[in-house]
Amino acid sequence: MKFVDKVFIKVIAGNGGNGCIHFRREKYTPKGGPDGGNGGDGGNVWIQGDENINTLVDYRFKKIFLAGNGESGKSNNSSGRKGKDITIFVPLGTRVIDFDSKNILFDVTIMGQKLLLAKGGWHGLGNTRFKSPTRRVPYKRTLGSIGENKDLILELLLIANVGTLGLPNAGKSTLVNTITKAKPKISSHPFTTIYPTLGVINRIKDKKIIIADIPGLISGSSNGVGLGINFLKHLERCTLLLHLIDINPYDSSNVCNNIQIIINELNNYKKKILLKKHIWTVFTKIDLVSQKKLNKLVKTILQCFPQIKNYYLISSANSFGLEKLCNDISTFFYK
């Protein structure tokens, strides 16, 4: 299934039905009087969260959502039928944004949460409603009002406790693959991960902690280069971020420079909101270097970035360091 996290839609609520002008005409009731019924209300457009959906792909081509119109009133004081409501089901974490003002209208984060997007028009009144002792033959009714219509943006921000970030091939997908049942695509070439993946950490018993794997960042991602800027928003809901760093890059690039690239991108993203989160440093693929070289590399990195006080050394290939990392994540969320 293709991952789609942003769509543009138009919602149109139903119009209210018109009131009816009618007078009762029966054989033995020559003065039957008015009996025109009211119209029915127009149908509403709703949005509802569903945890079984993880993408907005269903709305990539279906753009217009139209609720039913209310029926007009009928004789014999019969009211028109209410227009049919429609409900748009979306993944948890979906924001509803007004297309024109760009204001966030709703944030759907709870299973079953149901919110009104567009209200149907009010019903018109039949002439029965206008009869009185002084107005016994009312030739008056009201028309139903027009339902609301809105242009909206649906934007999905995945709900996860922990998010991974780093350069391509830093080991993010391998980590998520190892500690969850999620199966993100893994390969040696850059940008193997082209859309986010969610998984529940299975090394933490009786506690549900969700981790998100997003595509790798490169220099300029915050300005639209590569894939990163399209998916950095999925880290906004995360409480904890894991900055994964390949301790011995296959392309022989400088590790300190690689770390600075990620820091620069986070610094340039939406008023530094991601930098304000808890960020843990995780050095990956340590099984590929000797202990002596590992110690030297870590020492050099800590000299370049003295702000790094705590760090983790892991190898997803042989599970080294993963138990401690997962236990510390559990403690972080369930103190």
Mean pLDDT: 88
For this structure, the quaternary state is single chain
CATH topology type of the largest domain: Rossmann fold
Total beta strand runs:
14
What is the CATH architecture descriptor of the largest domain? 3-Layer(aba) Sandwich
- CA radius of gyration: 30 Å
How many angstroms does the end-to-end distance come to? 37 Å
User: How many strands, which pairing sense, and closed or not: the largest β-sheet?
Assistant: 6 strands, mixed
Assign the CATH class of the largest domain. Answer: Alpha Beta
> What series of H and E elements makes up the topology?
EEEEEEEEEHEEHEHEHEH
Shape: rod-shaped
Query: How much of the polypeptide forms β-strand, as a percent range?
Result: 15-25%
Helix content: 10-25%
Describe the structure.
This protein is α/β, with parallel strands linked by helices. The protein has 2 domains: 1-156, GTP1/OBG domain (Spo0b-associated Gtp-binding Protein, Chain: A), CATH 2.70.210.12; 162-333, Rossmann fold (3-Layer(aba) Sandwich). Helices cover 15% and strands 21% of the residues. It has helices at 172-179, 228-231, 255-267, 291-304, 322-333; strands at residues 6-12, 45-49, 64-66, 86-90, 94-98, 104-108, 114-118, 149-156, 162-165, 197-200, 210-213, 240-246, 278-284, 311-313. The strands form 3 sheets. The protein has a 6-stranded mixed β-sheet, with helices on both faces. A 5-stranded mixed β-sheet has the order 3-1-8-5-6, with no helix packed on it. It starts with 5 loop residues before the first strand and ends with a helix. Mean pLDDT is 88; it is low at 186-192.
